[in-house]
Amino acid sequence: MEEWVQAVNNHGGFGEWAFAVSRDPGDVDGIIGEYSNLGAVESPESEEMNDDLKVLKQFLEIPVGSSDGVFERFKQIPNADFRGEKQKRFLYVRGFRQNKVLLVAHADTVWDKYYKEPFTSKHEVIFHNGIVQSGTKGCGIGADDRAGCAILWLLKDMGHSLLITDGEEHGKFGSSWLMSHNRDIVDEINNEHQFIIQLDRFNGADFKCYKVGTPEFKKYIEDNTPYGDAGDDRSTDICQLCESITGVNLSIGYHNEHYSNESLDLSEWENTLNVCRTWLAEKELPKFRRS
Question: How many other CB atoms sit within 10 Å of the CB of residue 256?
Answer without folding.
Answer: 18
